[in-house]
């Protein structure tokens, strides 16, 4: 399919953008891990933020690629989804995919009243994971990019109101969320372009996603970090 597209087709460009960001994510992961090896707290804190930032960028690039695939959404659906802010544009992508595949009109709710039990459960699981696993990392990406590192800011009648920013995630917490985003994006992508393939692959992919989510607390980080060799012991 891609070989038939013009060189300047949005799908090609969005694919190139995602590939570049994925390469950058590898570099961010390496830099974060190297900081951990050096046991430098300030360096670890900085690279953890950059790691989280690039994961958020990767998530957005993945959605852009999904939306521009000519085998997926039509122009009207793309326009409606793109009007939504991040990260609700992801849930909108799921909603419009279900509407199109199962003939649900816009005035009816996507759910148990319009889908059979299996498909309604799939819809609920996707929305739940997107709202928990994706929303936080994208929201953090936006705040990190706007210099809200220690305090989250919001303006109310020209007065800044502040709340303490949550603690920076450790390497395993970020890396596992990155993997979860890739898996959930795979399901959303397949749903957009092929309902048959979505039904075929859902259980296996979602089971892998659930396994990754079990490690979201990063409780094994201290032992993992302690086992990393110091830089002078790393074989070159």
Descriptive notes:
- The chain is mainly α and 236 residues long.
- The chain has one domain.
- It is built from 8 helices and 2 strands.
- The longest helix has 29 residues, at 10-38.
- The radius of gyration is 20 Å and the shape is globular.
- The model has no long low-confidence stretch (mean pLDDT 89).
Concise synopsis of the structure shown:
By secondary structure, the chain is mainly alpha-helical.
Tally of separate domains: 1
> What's the count of strands?
2
Helix and strand composition category = mainly alpha
Q: Please identify the oligomeric state.
A: single chain
Residue ranges: pLDDT <50 for 5 or more in a row? none
Mean pLDDT: 89
Coarse morphology: globular
Tag the structure with descriptive keywords.
236 residues, mainly alpha, two-stranded antiparallel ribbon, 67% helix, globular
What's the SSE blueprint?
Blueprint: H1 10-38, H2 41-68, H3 75-83, H4 88-102, H5 117-145, E1 151-156, E2 159-164, H6 171-193, H7 195-213, H8 221-227
Antiparallel strand pairs: 1-2
